[in-house]
Every structure is written in C-alpha cells, then in structure tokens.
Amino acid sequence: MDFGENNLTGTIPQCFGNLHGMTGGDSNLYFFGGFEQSVIQVMRGVPLEYTTIMRYVVNMDLSSNRLVGEIPNNLTLLSGLLGLNLSNNHLTGQIPARIGDVNSLMSLDLSGNDLIGTIPQSISSLTSLSHLNLSNNNLSGRIPTGSQLQTLIDPSIYAGNNELCGSPLPKRCERDEAGVTTSNNGKDDDDIEMIWVYAIASGFATGFIGILGVLALSKRWRLFLYSFVEVKQK
C-alpha cells in the first residue's frame, strides 16, 4: 500500500489495523492470479521495482505527507507487515508500546516527525529488522538493546533526538555516569580510609619510638632501667 509523497492530511485511520491481507493470517491472500505489473515500493530506505508480482509486497508507505496525530496502536496488529514507512509527516505522541508485535517487520522508518517519549523495549524483539530510522524526532531516554538491535550500530539511525542516550550514540545515559561516579567515589573513599589507617599507624609508631628515644637519652631513666633489669635478673 503506497500513498507516499502526496498531500494527505488528517490522522492515520484506526481501521488500517483491520487490513487482513497484512496480518499474515491467510496465506492465500498473498497471491495474485498471475498477471504482470510494475510497482515501486520503498523498502529499507531503498526504492525497489517489482515487475512480475506473484505475491503481495506487504508494505505500508505513508511517507512525505501532512499526516498528524498519533500512530494508531491498531497498526501493531499487522503481524504480516514487512515494511512500515511513516517518515516526514507531523506525527506526534509516542511509538506504540507493542510495536514488537509486528514480528515480520524488516523495515521501519518513523523519521522526520514529532514523536516523543522513549523507544519501546519491544522493538528489540523484531528479529527480522534490518532497516531502522528514528532520526529527527523528539525521542528521549535510553536506546533499547538486545537481539537484532545489536546489529544496527549506525548512529544516524537516532540522529536529531537530543535527549536519547546509550549505544550507538556517544552520549552516555545519566544512570551509567552516576554508576561510574559512585564506583569511583567508593574507590576514593576506600583509598582515603587506608591513608588514615596508615597515617594513624605511622603516627603511633613514630610517637612510641620518640618516647623511647627520649627515655634512652635521659640519664635518670637509664639508671632506673638498669636497676630494674638487675633486680629482675636476681
């Protein structure tokens, strides 16, 4: 379904979640009657031309329009969807928390919108995802890790989201920095404690030796010690 680069306005209809041909529920819906047709679909950020179509390209492209509002949660029901491109619109709100339910998704492009909030952890369960673009939004928080996301290490995927942190961006999350600081502070505290122990021990030893030195230099104390030793020997 390609409605990209038009002047569509308004919100994305909730009923798009009822597109049965994109749910993967009936494999017979993926086949045509055997005629040829030329179709260009944008997948993984690259325009691809299909000339002999024996199967639906299960792709939804609504990019470069003037769509507003939030991304409908019902889109996460399209478990057979391979590509979703909603880039360059005026979409607001958060990325649907259950985006990971679209488990066939290979390409996801939500760039160039006004999306806010954190990136859902469920996105890490998209094991087939090979193209991701979330750049130029207002996303914040830690970038999820795990599974397929470990292979998507291009920082440009998340560029233009100043409040995002974590790999692959150079910006570290505050919690990580706090952990490093706390760890360093703990080490510093241990070092300071050891210094105090050494200082006290050294001071005690120095003082004791000093007292013995004074006593050794005193003639009166030397005579007393000699007398004490002679008495003990007898």
CATH level 3 topology of the largest domain: Leucine-rich repeat, LRR (right-handed beta-alpha superhelix)
Give the number of helices: 2
- Gyration radius, in Å: 36 Å
* Major sheet: arrangement of strands: 4-6-8-10
- Decide which structural class fits the backbone: alpha/beta
Percentage of residues in helical conformation: 25-40%
Shape, principal axes of CA atoms: globular
Largest sheet: 4 strands, parallel
Low-confidence stretches: 25-38, 50-55, 180-184
Strand content: 15-25%
Please explain how this structure is put together:
It is found in: Membrane. This is Leucine-rich repeat protein. By secondary structure, this protein is of the alpha/beta class. It folds into two domains: 9-171, Leucine-rich repeat, LRR (right-handed beta-alpha superhelix) (Alpha-Beta Horseshoe), CATH 3.80.10.10; 176-233. 25% of the residues lie in helices and 18% in strands. It is globular and about 110 Å long.
